[in-house]
Amino acid sequence: MANIQDVAALAGVSVATVSRVLNNSTSVVPGTRDRVLSAIRELNYNPNLTARNLRRAQTKMVLVLLPTVANPFYSRIVKGMEDIAHKNGYNVMLCNTNSDPAREKVYLELLKNRLADGAVLMSSDFETEYLMELGSIWPIVQCCEYNENTTLSRISINNEQAAYKAVEHLTKLGHKRIGMISAKNNFISTALREKGYKRALSDAGIALDPGFIMYGDYGYKSGLRLTTQLLSLENPPSALFAISDMMAIGGIKAAIQKGFSIPDDFAAVGFDNISFSSMYSPALTTISQPKYDMGCVAMELLLKGISGEETMQKTIVLEHELIIRESTVN
Amino acid sequence: MANIQDVAALAGVSVATVSRVLNNSTSVVPGTRDRVLSAIRELNYNPNLTARNLRRAQTKMVLVLLPTVANPFYSRIVKGMEDIAHKNGYNVMLCNTNSDPAREKVYLELLKNRLADGAVLMSSDFETEYLMELGSIWPIVQCCEYNENTTLSRISINNEQAAYKAVEHLTKLGHKRIGMISAKNNFISTALREKGYKRALSDAGIALDPGFIMYGDYGYKSGLRLTTQLLSLENPPSALFAISDMMAIGGIKAAIQKGFSIPDDFAAVGFDNISFSSMYSPALTTISQPKYDMGCVAMELLLKGISGEETMQKTIVLEHELIIRESTVN
DNA sequence: TTGTATGCGTTATCAC
DNA sequence: GTGATAACGCATACAA
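^ Those are the sequences you sent over. The predicted structure of the assembly is below.
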């Protein structure tokens, strides 16, 4: 594995000149330039980016922390992030945190070890202080979820309004008994979706039944279990609002298992519009977030922060959309 | 951001000593050791891993190339890889190639730039020569898919046997007209699954109908479209074997749309046992691969290659399992 | 336009 | 047990 010195020797120039053609910084006379280029080819030379990064005090690497790639909700977002990153010569290091604070910290601390130039956080249980301290040194962008006490940049949709729209869709269909399955976590989106649910009920003149709100995690099993419980109530709901598609699908499965017909006996609305939602039988009514765009915008913001082009912290809210499918309407 | 010199100065020792306590290499007297440690704390010092990596000619980073994280099949595998990598102080860089040869190459060439110490390939359209050349310099392990002309290590299941088992399950249920939806690609697994399908039919004394094998990609839409075509045949199949769960689910959706009852009118078997398979309605019969273990084994092999502990190329075949669910049996 | 020389932050070899 | 110091491979300020 040849290095820059070998190339310089073979081309009969100094390493500085080789470096110049490598980065086409200052102008190099065509003649020498060609000699260098052919030496590079002949030696099959590739620059050592570790050395370059050390010298330049950068890594051209960004961290993306997310709970898990297993949730298809994240895959489109990640795609957007990657596209923007690559376009700008950056690589992204995907970090599955499993929502484990210890793991999250391990990853984020890679910044301190100068192994990445910045980070996008898609879930974080970090202390406000810790986050602000790191954010004062390295660019950090929050995507989808955020700690509202920090002043770090954030990208999200209006979760309260989206949830309102989802539940309003159900009330307009005539449903009076609407259950909600939510999650026990610190995500701001969870709280806001619950708020939207309550406001929609209130606006429709429906009294809130606290027994109709159940808590699990984001997953299918959780949705299955909670909905089974809801449907076992003496006076069960006729419709369901779930904070994730996975939970909504679990809810539908529970209803099917109980012999309910969808959407006549039981209707369900999810959240996220993951790809499975349209594949499911019945296809799922859900809230769609502009996943790819969110990823793009988050990464653009991060890269601007890294380049110093944009240091102001921003709050960006993107549009969402209610997608009506078979799980609520025939 | 303090460096090792700052720490040395504050502790009143040389950088060499600081380095020693950092790597607890040679023994350092407890007294100086404590002074160094408290200097590190006081300065909030973190070693610059780029510099360390340059010096040590390593990166503690491995590449994992896969078509897309959007396919849940890969998430468990990746989890296994990550667990093993982290346990050994390595980070993994997940690379979504979208099966695009250009992108694949860009990623793999990161090895040449000394940005990673080795790579796991989970899909590759690389030329045999190219792969062998890189493999002669850096440890490379092939997982699930492989180029059979290379001598690189590989981990997989017996795809032919697994497909055989899946189709045999259908013939034993009495099905005589069994369609297959496959993909147009160069994956070794695809060819082997087709081979297993044919052998199972043959062993059951069923003549192969070439019109019963259709080709698409791995996805849901493809499965939906191809199965719709199969079911439009004058004499349509009563059962389906798909090379992926996503395709099988598309197939089931197609049958449902045509008013078929599953599994009475139409049965389907998939491949991969992605999490969504058990959530689907009807739940999908499928072949389960030991995803997590495959990931672990692949990464273990890679790390042994990197450490030089194991340089022999290996071929490892893991066990699979037929999982029977509602899509074939009531 | 090109070359020389220095430094990025470490680790490791050699002295003491 | 500890300290100088030379590398690692590159980019760049300064000279020429």
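The mean pLDDT of chain A is 95. DSSP finds 13 helices and twelve strands in chain A.

Shout if you want it in another format.
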